[in-house]
Amino acid sequence: MLRHTYEGQDCNLARSLEVIGERWTLLIIRSALLGTSRFDQFLSHLDIARNVLSSRLNRLVEQGLMERVPYQDKPVRHEYRLTPAGRDLTRAVVALMQWGDRNLPQELGPPRRADHIGCEGTVEVELRCTHCGRIVHDEEVDVRPIR
């Protein structure tokens, strides 16, 4: 992981990766987007070690991306639900899925796709200019410092 100080590194991407850049973190977020909410469900869907899952879930709660919500009293058990900040990662997860589909294709095709709940159409992530409203292609993007 990246270091926790940003001395000489004023970068919004570095700050984001400090929270979500570890491999299991985005897979946990993806599973939560698919409807997984309980510890044992995450374990079975991800084939992850218990201690690693516990650590990552705790960090996601600390970072405000998930919340622990009790669903049982005796013994006390919790669900892990995405917060609005966690749900806001939907675009990033879908963009990475689509990048993988384009650049690392599988013979059987993609294992998942993002569908629009309202009409069942397929959802695609796109870049759009805030000034003219036009869809922007990758080669038309210039990432530059602004301060």
TrEMBL record:
Pfam family, one: HxlR
Keyword Protease: no
Protein name as catalogued: HxlR family transcriptional regulator
Keywords assigned by UniProt, alphabetized: DNA-binding, Transcription, Transcription regulation
Entry's transmembrane regions: none
Domain of life: Bacteria
GO terms of molecular function: DNA binding
Source organism (scientific name): Streptomyces bungoensis
Boundaries of every HTH hxlR-type domain copy: 11-108
InterPro entries in alphabetical order: HTH_HxlR (IPR002577), WH-like_DNA-bd_sf (IPR036388), WH_DNA-bd_sf (IPR036390)
Residues in the signal sequence: none
